[in-house]
């Protein structure tokens, strides 16, 4: 074990019962920096950043999102079907370099956004943000946290969507085979066919982390694991959120599949452990398994499931396409073998009234136990029994699904998150400055009810920023 475990619970207000976001004297200027952002994205970190951008603009704030298209293209190599969204109050800066894949590779190796530093500094200087919120910045490097150009009054937050701060492969997934309990980073990195990051053997990360005012951990488990693996800064427990469709919407949507089914939604990678579902399915009652997602394991998993007609692969689905599958599934299955941080798939299932049957590992146990919205298992026998019980008892399925939905309508809702977020910003500003700068300032423009979300429609645009 390395380091002591320091997890701070928020002490700045906003209980689950008091979820009305506080009204700010003026709109805040917020910059969200992330490697991936829809549609140039793969997983839940980008989904959360988009939800946060929407929630902040709906609350009247001015939001700029900065993300790296080169990183997405380096890993996927093709243009996504959808374009970057246009939304009032939101500007999306899609960074591209003339050097293509060399830009994120150089950042990954050196820890600094060399080929994008100039454009990043320019964007931040022009935005004059009150808040800079970092998310997954793995292919910008830790130096992005200390870039010049930010006003001294800007607060800096960092949300730990994975374990990049303590793990070169980001997942604490040792040798691509098991959860990491003891560090062997160099050998594990080479086993994952990644070049070693020499900056991890210097004080760069510790130095850059001093620039951050508050580190946010979506789960208590994630905060604890960061401390155990040597991260020296304390973290505030700050769960993520999702939005919930109206109850009438979920009732009226027809089932997308003619038979009872369980759903897996996520990337088809070894750590997601989808093969365990395929192996167990011959023992399941009369229920199908639908697998939504793509990834490096897809070909192998399709071959593994070829003999079972009850297993169907749906490919990559958009979130709006997934909604009906969540609504009508017997259960959403989360068999992950790695230490999940706070997976969005669980929140999305709960939002649609679907119970979750999850492997008892990482933050999955925390989410299921706090919500009462599912069942945990440790063995294949326990998983088969949990699914069989839900198939046999629609009343149990409905009761668990209702508990999960209540959780995302309460503590894990956008309103609850924003109430905590506003309170965190005020508390952090008082600690750092002695007062709250935006409380004292005279607003140059109040919240304007001219757009659907209270922000002037002409503020909606996207940019493509290029640097040498």
What are its keywords?
468 residues; Rossmann fold; nine-stranded parallel β-sheet; 17 helices; 17 strands; globular; disordered N terminus
CATH superfamily of the largest domain: Glycogen Phosphorylase B
> What integer value in Å does the Rg equal?
22 Å
Give the strand line-up of the largest sheet: 1-10-9-6-5-2-3-4-17
Count helical runs: 17
- Biggest sheet, open or closed, and with what strands and sense? 9 strands, parallel
Shape label? globular
The name of the CATH topology of the largest domain is Rossmann fold
Q: What's the CATH architecture of the largest domain?
A: 3-Layer(aba) Sandwich
- Structural class of the secondary elements? alpha/beta
Q: Could you give the distance between the termini?
A: 43 Å
How many beta-strand segments?
A: 17
Please indicate the count of domains.
Answer: 2
CATH class category label of the largest domain: Alpha Beta
> Portion of residues in helices?
25-40%
Strand content: 15-25%
Q: Which residues sit in consecutive blocks of at least 5 with pLDDT less than 50?
A: 1-6, 11-17, 442-460
Summed over residues and divided by their number, the pLDDT gives a mean of: 88
């Amino acid at each position: 074990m390395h380091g002591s475990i320091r997890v701070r619970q928020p002490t700045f207000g906003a209980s689950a019962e008091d979820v009305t976001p506080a009204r700010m004297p003026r709109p805040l200027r917020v910059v969200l920096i992330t490697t991936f952002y829809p549609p140039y994205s793969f997983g839940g970190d980008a989904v959360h950043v988009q939800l946060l951008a929407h929630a902040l603009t709906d609350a009247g704030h001015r939001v700029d999102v900065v993300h790296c298209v080169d990183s997405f293209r380096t890993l996927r190599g093709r243009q996504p079907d959808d374009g970057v969204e246009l939304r009032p109050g939101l500007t999306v800066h899609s960074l591209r370099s003339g050097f293509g894949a060399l830009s994120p590779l150089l950042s990954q190796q050196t820890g600094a956004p060399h080929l994008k530093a100039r454009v990043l500094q320019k964007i931040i200087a022009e935005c004059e943000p009150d808040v800079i919120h970092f998310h997954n910045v793995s292919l910008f490097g830790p130096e992005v946290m200390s870039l010049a150009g930010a006003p001294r009054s800007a607060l800096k937050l960092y949300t730990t969507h994975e374990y990049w701060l303590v793990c070169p492969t980001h997942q604490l997934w040792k040798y691509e085979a098991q959860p990491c309990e003891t560090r062997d980073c160099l050998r594990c990195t080479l086993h994952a066919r990644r070049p070693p990051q020499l900056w991890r053997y210097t004080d760069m990360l510790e130095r850059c982390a001093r620039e951050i005012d508050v580190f946010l951990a979506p789960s208590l488990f994630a905060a604890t694991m960061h401390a155990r693996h040597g991260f020296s800064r304390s973290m505030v427990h700050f769960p993520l959120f999702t939005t919930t469709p109206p109850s009438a919407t979920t009732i009226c949507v027809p089932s997308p599949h003619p038979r009872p089914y369980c759903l897996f939604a996520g990337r088809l990678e070894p750590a997601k452990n989808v093969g365990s579902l395929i192996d167990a399915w011959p023992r399941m009652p009369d229920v199908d398994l639908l697998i939504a997602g793509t990834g490096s394991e897809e070909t192998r998993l399709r071959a593994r499931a070829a003999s079972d007609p009850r297993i169907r692969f749906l490919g990559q689905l958009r979130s709006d396409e997934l909604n009906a599958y969540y609504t009508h599934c017997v259960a959403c299955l989360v068999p992950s073998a790695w230490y999940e941080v706070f997976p969005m798939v669980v929140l999305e299932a709960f939002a649609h009234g679907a119970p979750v049957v999850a492997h008892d590992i990482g933050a999955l146990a925390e989410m299921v136990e706090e919500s009462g919205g599912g069942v945990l298992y440790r063995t294949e026998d326990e998983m088969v029994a949990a699914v069989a019980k839900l198939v046999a008892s629609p009343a149990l399925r409905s009761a668990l699904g209702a508990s999960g939905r209540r959780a995302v309508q309460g503590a894990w809702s956008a309103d609850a998150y924003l109430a905590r977020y506003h309170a965190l910003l005020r508390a952090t500003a008082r600690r750092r400055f002695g007062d709250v700068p935006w409380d004292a300032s005279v607003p140059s423009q109040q919240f304007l009810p001219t757009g659907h979300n209270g922000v002037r429609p002409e503020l909606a645009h996207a940019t493509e920023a290029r640097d040498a």
